[in-house]
Design a protein that fits this description.
This protein is of the alpha+beta class. The protein is built from 5 helices and 18 strands. A hairpin with a 2-residue loop joins strand 11 and strand 12. The longest helix has 27 residues, at 2-28.
Length: 285
């Protein structure tokens, strides 16, 4: 009986040790808990990247009445931030020249089109068309000093990258004047006699310019993680891919663990000013 009792006690102790070891393993190495934590980290990082690369985009769909026969139209849109620039297309998405004069007056060279879509955002670039000769300072260019900054007739501004005759990359003496569509139009058209605003929409979209900027900040990886408030034990990377396969992405740091990724289709304001859909992928490990 004594041997039998000792054997039972040893069995109970072994069982207790086994259960304790199993619980400890599950507690410290629980794959379900790890998966939940990484899912949360991925979703959190995705949200922070969207937050830091988004910009407001306004869009106006405008229908011009058939009775209006001019090829350029001048109209009023109130309450638009003065830092927002324009990008305009016709019904088929073909670019149309447009410009802004003052805070509320906009002009579009619509030619024979009776419908156009105007986009407004602070991340839309100023157009670089026409010819300019810039030999002055930025202030002289901005002031339109005809002795220091010469723009062709019909153009409203000179190259913003010209400082004392030194041009930034991509700018030469043959580029940099913005076409002034409003030139020659005396007064704004009236609504609803000449045109109607069919619809308007304000939304948050991803800015390709800001994604590229964030990718450049990735060079100082630890600082960027701190800026985005990403936990020290989580690493991440991101990429933005368009249908034509052009990409804007960072160079990932060394990957030493399992990667958790998510891809979402997002609307993007391209560096050209044109809205387009792309795929934003965020990975954490």
């Amino acid at each position: 009986m004594r041997k039998k009792g000792v054997g039972s006690l040893e069995f109970v102790l072994a069982f207790v040790l086994f259960v304790g070891f199993t619980v400890a393993v599950l507690y410290f190495f629980n794959p379900i808990s790890t998966l939940k934590n990484m899912d949360y980290s991925r979703d959190y990082t995705f949200g922070k990247i969207i937050e830091n690369t988004s910009v407001q985009l306004d869009s106006y769909s405008i229908v011009v009445n058939n009775s209006f026969t001019d090829q350029k139209i001048k109209f009023t849109l109130s309450g638009i931030s003065p830092i927002k620039k324009t990008y305009t297309t016709d019904y088929n998405g073909t670019f149309l020249n447009s410009s802004r004069t003052g805070n509320d007056i906009f002009c579009v060279s619509m030619k024979t089109q009776k419908f156009f879509e105007m986009y407004l955002s602070e991340d839309i670039p100023l157009p670089a068309t026409g010819t300019a000769i810039c030999n002055g300072t930025q202030a002289e260019c901005d002031a339109g000093d005809t002795l220091k900054c010469k723009c062709l007739s019909g153009h409203s501004w000179c190259c913003p990258a010209c400082l004392n005759g030194v041009y930034a990359p991509g700018w030469t003496t043959n580029t940099g004047c913005g076409i002034d569509v409003c030139q020659g139009i005396s007064s704004p058209s009236e609504t609803p006699r000449d045109y109607q605003i069919a619809s308007s929409l304000t939304d948050k979209v991803i800015s390709e310019t800001r994604v590229i900027g964030l990718a450049h900040e990735y060079d100082d990886y630890n600082k960027l993680k701190e800026q985005l408030n990403i936990p020290p034990d989580v690493d991440f990377s991101f990429s933005l891919v368009f249908p034509d396969k052009t990409t804007a992405s960072n160079s990932a740091v060394d990957i030493t663990r399992e990667v958790y990724s998510e891809t979402r289709r997002v609307e993007v304001l391209r560096t050209t000013g044109r809205p387009q859909f792309g795929e934003l992928t965020v990975s954490v490990w």
